[in-house]
């Protein structure tokens, strides 16, 4: 299907907008894929905090050039996932889809303006989800503060135990007097 120059310019602007909004981009090559499959995958990517689009390689190459991303020539069919919120979650969706699949093939992606290989996408997919990473970081930050509070309070607590033991001893064995 041929597109007019106006339509191509609109598509190019959309591609540039998606690239600017995303933290990372992952590319999937597909064969023999129905619209139902695309919609299913699009829903999974949306749940993971991203967007999935079928792109025209020539226009996407132009958009990558305009946004300053170093890239190789895109060939074949390209489904691109734009990770807006949670990069590891979107990478995980793509990794699960390509596992044991003859229809999908992971091409790599772009992160921080540079191309990343399939191995990097796999490493990203193995990271825990963003809420888990946040809670782990919070735990790491809170641990020293909690230890400091316990260290400061411990002498006073020990002294309180001594006074309590002394008062209980006084009650049990009153002094004559």
């Amino acid at each position: 299907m041929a597109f007019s120059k106006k339509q191509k310019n609109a598509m190019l602007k959309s591609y540039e907008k998606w690239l600017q909004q995303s933290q990372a981009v992952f590319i999937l090559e597909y064969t023999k894929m129905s619209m139902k499959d695309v919609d299913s995958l699009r829903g999974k990517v949306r749940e993971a905090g991203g967007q999935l689009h079928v792109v025209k390689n020539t226009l996407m190459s132009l958009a990558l050039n305009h946004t300053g991303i170093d890239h190789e020539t895109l060939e074949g069919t390209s489904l691109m996932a734009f990770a807006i919120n949670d990069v590891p979650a979107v990478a995980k969706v793509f990794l699960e889809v390509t596992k044991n699949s003859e229809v999908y093939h992971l091409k790599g992606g772009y992160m921080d303006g540079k191309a990343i290989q399939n191995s990097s996408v796999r490493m990203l997919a193995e990271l825990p989800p963003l809420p888990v990473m946040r809670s782990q970081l919070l735990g790491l930050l809170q641990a020293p503060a909690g230890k400091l509070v316990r260290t400061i309070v411990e002498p006073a607590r020990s002294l309180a135990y001594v006074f309590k033991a002394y008062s209980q001893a006084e009650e049990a064995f009153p002094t004559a007097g």
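The chain has a mean pLDDT of 83. The helical segments are 5-21, 35-47, 57-66, 87-98, 118-126, 130-172.
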